[in-house]
Design goal:
By secondary structure, the protein is an alpha+beta fold. The chain has helices at residues 2-15, 18-25; strands at 37-45, 48-55, 61-66, 75-78.
């Protein structure tokens, strides 16, 4: 019974952390861009994924964090000089 419980907890932990699976165990994931955005770059900070995009309408750049559980995801907005 204890082995079954440990296996269930491990599977639950691995299936709920897409970033962790991708980064540490060679899994795969997808990220969908918002409308009118162009992909610039992507980077990891710990287990969190940061996607950098450019809004083709406003010309602003965004760095958006995709965290493991979707909690406390940061956004950085970069406005070009005029």
């Amino acid at each position: 019974m204890k082995k079954l419980l440990m296996v269930a907890i491990t599977l639950l932990a691995l299936t709920s952390c897409e970033n962790t699976l991708t980064r540490k165990f060679g899994g795969s994931m997808q990220h969908e861009l918002k409308p009118n955005e162009k992909f610039i770059n992507v980077t990891w900070k710990g287990d969190n994924l940061w996607v950098i995009t450019q809004d083709t309408v406003t010309n602003f750049y965004y760095a958006r964090e995709k965290s493991n559980y979707g909690l406390m995801e940061g956004v950085i907005t970069i406005k070009p000089r005029k």
